[in-house]
Design a protein that fits this description.
Blueprint lengths: L7 H13 L2 H8 L3 H15 L4 E4 L2 E4 L1 H22 L9 E5 L2 H8 L3 H7 L4 E5 L14 E6 L6 E15 L1 H4 L13 E4 L6 H8 L9 E4 L2 H9 L4 E6 L3 H5 L4 E2 L5 E12 L6 H21 L1
Parallel strand pairs: 3-4, 3-5, 7-8, 7-9
Antiparallel strand pairs: 1-2, 5-11, 6-9, 6-10, 6-11
Helix pairs in contact: 1-2, 1-3, 1-4, 2-3
Length: 298
């Protein structure tokens, strides 16, 4: 049977541009130029004989034809990807793309990545901290590190660890505190982007819930730790994320009881890809590094 197929690379460009609603963002995801994306989509439009995108004052949007075409293109690309991944003995890819929260990427993966590269010199790693919903395998991400209470149905999920919540501050601030009276009156640092912070710690330990109006509010773990290091208040530290700060005594605990978070970090892949050799190699390596973290803290 002879198939009359559109330009296949243009289909990939169309899918990403349609999903991201931006030629520039599609180019960034695919690591090509915006001009290459525009040229490829124009080729597809010429082949189809109709427009797939229209430009508006606020950017670009799909035409009615583009909206109707997109689900079929996504299903076709996913079918081709899954078929390739199921071939027995398939050789590992040259690179894997990993999506991880910024703090996890900076504290857990990046300091150890050189060791992985030495162990697996043929595998290149691309690390992204753009935190968004991952659509395997459509958006080119091979492994996602995500936070949640339970595994996600329909994906291959491996729990890495639950964070341990413990109040921390700078050594200088700690030296001035009388914890019998000061915890509820000392300025606190509140993490607004986390579902578990001071309230979760207080509920788990039976301690009084600190006043949310006292202290400052920040939206990233890194900002919370930086503020605590500067002596701006007491923050909820998250082990093992802040192990380095504790070892270097940039932060200290306050002798208060820790609480295990109900939220865990998970390694997530498409079910069809978790046995792919390069993905399996990285997953095995990361699990080994997590186990070393546990051993070092005992």
């Amino acid at each position: 049977m002879t198939y009359r197929l559109p330009p296949l690379n243009s289909l990939r460009l169309f899918e990403v541009a349609a999903r991201r609603q931006s030629f520039k963002e599609a180019a960034s995801e695919l690591q090509v130029t915006p001009g290459a994306v525009s040229h490829g989509i124009r080729n597809l439009e010429d082949w189809l004989g109709l427009r797939l995108f229209v430009r508006t004052g606020r950017g670009m949007t799909l035409t009615a034809a583009g909206v109707k075409y997109l689900p079929s293109v996504q299903a076709g690309l996913e079918l081709l990807s899954n078929a390739a991944n199921k071939i027995p003995g398939r050789r590992a890819q040259n690179s894997i793309r990993i999506s991880a929260p910024p703090t996890f990427a900076a504290r857990i993966i990046l300091p150890r990545l050189e060791a992985f590269s030495k162990r697996n010199p043929a595998i290149r790693v691309a690390l992204s901290t753009e935190f968004r919903h991952v659509e395997f395998p459509r958006d080119g991400i091979d492994i996602a590190i995500r936070m949640g209470r339970d595994a996600w149905p329909g994906f291959s999920c491996t729990k890495l660890f639950n964070e341990t919540l413990v109040p921390v501050c700078s050594p200088a601030l700690r030296a001035t505190l009388d914890l019998s009276t000061d915890l509820l009156s000392t300025p606190l640092i509140h993490l607004t982007s986390a579902s578990e912070d001071w309230k979760a710690w207080a509920n788990a330990t039976g301690k009084p819930f600190p006043d949310q109006t006292v202290g400052i509010k920040v939206d990233t773990i890194q900002l919370a730790m930086d503020a605590a290091i500067r002596g701006m208040g007491i923050a909820i530290g998250r082990l093992p994320i802040i192990d380095v700060e504790l070892k270097r005594e940039r932060l200290v605990t306050l002798g208060l009881p820790p609480a295990e978070s109900k939220i865990a970090y998970w390694l997530v892949t498409a079910e069809s890809e978790h046995e792919r050799p390069d993905i399996a190699d990285f997953s095995e390596w990361l699990l080994g590094e997590i186990e070393k973290l546990r051993t070092d803290r005992r």
